[in-house]
Every structure is written in structure tokens, then in C-alpha cells.
Write a structure and sequence with these properties.
The complex is a heterodimer of chains A (139) and B (313). With 139 residues, chain A is an alpha+beta fold. Chain A contains 2 helices and 6 strands. In chain A, strands 2-1-3-4 form a 4-stranded antiparallel β-sheet. In chain B, α8 links the parallel β3 and β4. Chain B has 2 domains: 205 residues, Rossmann fold; 93 residues, Helicase, Ruva Protein, domain 3 (Orthogonal Bundle). Classes of the chains: A alpha+beta (139), B alpha/beta (313).
């Protein structure tokens, strides 16, 4: 099941040229672009691993693409990688854009878990099939 | 580019106005500004014009679909201290940007300290960080020969050099590297690192300024700060330049700037010691006493044979 998080996730995967153009857009806006990766793509997992610190003083997308390729080299077939643009200007101070730039080869998706509570109440939660295996061997 | 391709397919014009090409990209403006603002440096300007011409022609050729490989633009600037290497480098970034060879046109100026780390494993991330920052612009490495320390084969500089060479080769479209330094030591550096020499297309030598050129530089420096020489002051400064040149550690335009800074100091002091009211013109005029009080003259007079008095740089 293809996960859809962040911008552009309902579109076909972005090509490198498209990623570069989006990154350049972020940089031109003055946002700090950063790369994050994870093998636990649960929608509530907001803490992805950082691939180096956010790139605060990069002017051109080529620098970010350099890092993205390095990150792919290390994690391409086992992790999701996302690019996010952080706007530090007053009043925003938050992530303005984030989109997935790399997916593992196979995305097993999520299952629904039901937990019976007191009385006849039911609690629902989703769990990724991928996290059944230990971290590092998930994809 | 897209427009260019359709152009070459349909009706390629027979003649192309190259001069208009330069004007349209506003590179001509930068070249003219270079001519206007930088005194002397005739061979340098000539070389830069040649490079700009090559790039403009290349641009047109690419638009017409005449394939040619992107030219290598890495350069080395060699010359004595204060001959304008850094100023020219920043203009170079502007020209390359206007002609569309680098995307951003910023200049990242670094020295050994910015590239080389202090312990094992520190150098590579540091150098890569700088390269990332310089992407789309010009990386200017001042006193590049410090990267390589011959006497210490375990020096981390070697690691930085290897990463630089790799980036210079693989990311020619993203980055232009300019190495700068004193001529003799750069020669030595290139001899020990043949990889650099072969990856650098343009070796530009910056000549020393003549006395007349230094005087012109001094005038324009003063004008930029709303000062000017009195007639006597100008004559005094001319003799100052002559005397300063004979002393050690003379560094061309930089020495002139330092001399002018000291002259302004003495000028301000002289205005303070006056009892009568000071006019606006007095505040703007550097006069002979401001310059003649310089230690350079004493040293020059007394030295003659022994050249020890060069404390002013």
C-alpha cells in the first residue's frame, strides 16, 4: 500500500529534476531544507531520523541533491526519505513543506488492530506490517 | 533552452549579433564596471574578456544546437598581495552568473581553516559542508597552497584536496573553483598536486601595480570615503608610494589602504589641534602634513643602506 504523507504524495513519485526544482523553490523562499529518513512510516511517527543537520546556508539545490544522493546510497531500499523546508521567519517558525522523495521497494501497508476495552467498547489502532520485524530489517 | 531548440529546428538566423548577446545578458555591464572600477590589471581584464567572449559564443552555439562540452571554468589567480585577486573573483562570479554558467552567482571565500579539520574524520564533512554552500556559485580558496603541507604527509589537507578534486571533476556544472595565492608558492603547490593543474583551465597572473596606478587607486579609495587630496597632499603621497615600495612587506593596494587609514587618523588629530573653526572642506582634505608624518619617510631617509625600518605594512 502506497503511503501518502506530505505534499505531492498522491502524484507519481517526483523525478530528480522535479525534486531539485521543489528544493530550489524552498531555498529561494529562504527556508532551511533538511532530509529525514525512517523505516517506521506510521502517520503519527513525527520523529524521523535526521540526515545531518538542516542545511541553513545552502544557496543552490545542487548541495541538497548531493546530500539526498548520499542518503539514498545509505538507505534507499530500506527507508522512506523526506525533504522538509523549515521557515524560521517570525510568525511561521515551522515546517512549510515536506514531501517524500524515496520509498522502499515494497510497501506492505498497515493493519487495523482492535482492542476490547471495559464493557463492550472497542479501541482501534493501525500498525504497519513493516514494524513487525526489528528496525533495520523492515524492508 | 527549449525555445532555442525549436529555433534551430525552424528558422535558424544566418547571423548572430554576439555583442547584443553580451549586452542582453548584462555581462557587458559587469565587464565595463570591471574596467571602470579596477585600476590597471590590463592582462587580467584582457583574459576575463576572452573568457566572457568564449562563454557568450558557447551560449549562442548551444542555443543553435551546436553541441559542445561545457567549458571547464576553474581558475587560478596568482599574484603578489594586494593586487586585487579577491575583488576580481567576486566580479568573476557575477560575470559567470550573468552568462548563465553558475546558477546563483555568490562567492564563498575560504582558507585552509574552513576546509581542513583538526582530527581524523573531521575534514571530509567540513569540506563537503563548504562545497554544499558554494554550489551554484564560486568557491574562492585564498592561499590555496596551505592546503598541502609537504613536510607532513599525514596532514589532513590532503584529504580536503582529494574531495575538492572530485567535486571539481564531477560537479563542473554546479561549481566553479578559483584558487588564489602568491605566484611562486602556487607553482610549488601545482607541482606537488598535478591533479589541480590539469583541472584548472585558466591561470591568470596578476601583475604588480605601477606608481601611477597606485596613486589612482588611492584617489578612488579616498573618493569613496568622501575625502580628497590637496595638491600638496597628492605630491606627498606620490613620494610616499615611492618610499613605501622600497620597504619590505609592500603589498600594493593593501598598503595604500592602510596608509590612507593612518593618514585619516593624523588628519583627524590635526583638525583637533587647531584653535580656529574647521570648515567642511578641511574635513575632506588630506593635506601634506598628514602624509609626511608617516614613519615610512624616516625609515626611508635613515635606512638607505639598512632596510630594517619596515614596520608599516
Amino acid at each position: 500500500m502506497r503511503i501518502t504523507q506530505g505534499c505531492f504524495s498522491f502524484l507519481p513519485d517526483l523525478t530528480d529534476a522535479q525534486i531539485r526544482a521543489q528544493v530550489q523553490y524552498c531555498l529561494d523562499k529562504g527556508w532551511a531544507v533538511s532530509l529525514e529518513y525512517t523505516d517506521d512510516p506510521h502517520p503519527r511517527n513525527t520523529f524521523w531520523e535526521m540526515w545531518g543537520p538542516p542545511m541553513f546556508d545552502v544557496a543552490d539545490a545542487a548541495g541538497v541533491m548531493l546530500e539526498l544522493n548520499a542518503c539514498r546510497k545509505a538507505h534507499a531500499d530500506r527507508c522512506y526519505i523526506k525533504v522538509s523546508g523549515f521557515d524560521s521567519s517570525h510568525g511561521w517558525e515551522s515546517v512549510r513543506i515536506s514531501f517524500i522523495v524515496n520509498r522502499p521497494g515494497e510497501e506492505p501497508g498497515f493493519r487495523l488492530q482492535r482492542q476490547e476495552g471495559p464493557g463492550r467498547s472497542l479501541r482501534y489502532t493501525t500498525q504497519s506490517y513493516a514494524v513487525d520485524r526489528p528496525s533495520g530489517e523492515r524492508y | 533552452m527549449d525555445a532555442g531548440q525549436t529555433l534551430s529546428e525552424t528558422d535558424a538566423p544566418e547571423t548572430i549579433d554576439l555583442r547584443r548577446e553580451l549586452t542582453e545578458t548584462h555581462a557587458q555591464e559587469v565587464l565595463d564596471k570591471l574596467d571602470r572600477e579596477l585600476v590597471g590589471l590590463v592582462p587580467v581584464k584582457l583574459r576575463i574578456r576572452q573568457i566572457a567572449a568564449l562563454l557568450a559564443v558557447d551560449r549562442v552555439r548551444r542555443r543553435l544546437g551546436l553541441a559542445s562540452e561545457a567549458p571547464t571554468l576553474h581558475m587560478s589567480f596568482t599574484g603578489n598581495p594586494g593586487t586585487g585577486k579577491t575583488s576580481v573573483a567576486s566580479r568573476m562570479a557575477e560575470i559567470l552568473h550573468k552568462l548563465g554558467y553558475i546558477r546563483k552567482g555568490h562567492l564563498v571565500s575560504v582558507t585552509r581553516d574552513d576546509l581542513v579539520g583538526q582530527y581524523i574524520g573531521h575534514t571530509a564533512p567540513k569540506t563537503k559542508e563548504i562545497l554544499k554552500k558554494a554550489m551554484g556559485g564560486v568557491l574562492f580558496i585564498d592561499e590555496a597552497y596551505y592546503l598541502y603541507r609537504q613536510e607532513n604527509e599525514r596532514d589532513y589537507g590532503q584529504e580536503a584536496i582529494e574531495i575538492l578534486l572530485q567535486a571539481m571533476e564531477n560537479q563542473r556544472d554546479d561549481l566553479v573553483v578559483i584558487l588564489a595565492g602568491y605566484a611562486d608558492r602556487m607553482d610549488q603547490f601545482f607541482r606537488s598536486n598535478p591533479g589541480f593543474r590539469s583541472r584548472i583551465a585558466h591561470h591568470i597572473d596578476f601583475p604588480d601595480y605601477g606608481d601611477g596606478e597606485l596613486m589612482e587607486i588611492a584617489r578612488s579609495m579616498l573618493a569613496a570615503q568622501n575625502y580628497h587630496f590637496s595638491a600638496a597632499g597628492a605630491a606627498a603621497f606620490e613620494s610616499y608610494i615611492e618610499a613605501r615600495r622600497r620597504q619590505p612587506l609592500f603589498s600594493n593596494a593593501r598598503s595604500i589602504r592602510n596608509a590612507l587609514d593612518r593618514a585619516r587618523l593624523r588628519h583627524a588629530n590635526r583638525q583637533f589641534e587647531r584653535t580656529d573653526p574647521v570648515s567642511v572642506d578641511d574635513l575632506m582634505t588630506i593635506d601634506a602634513p598628514d602624509i609626511l608624518a608617516s614613519g615610512v619617510f624616516d625609515a626611508d631617509r635613515s635606512a638607505g643602506s639598512d632596510r630594517s625600518g619596515g614596520k608599516e605594512v
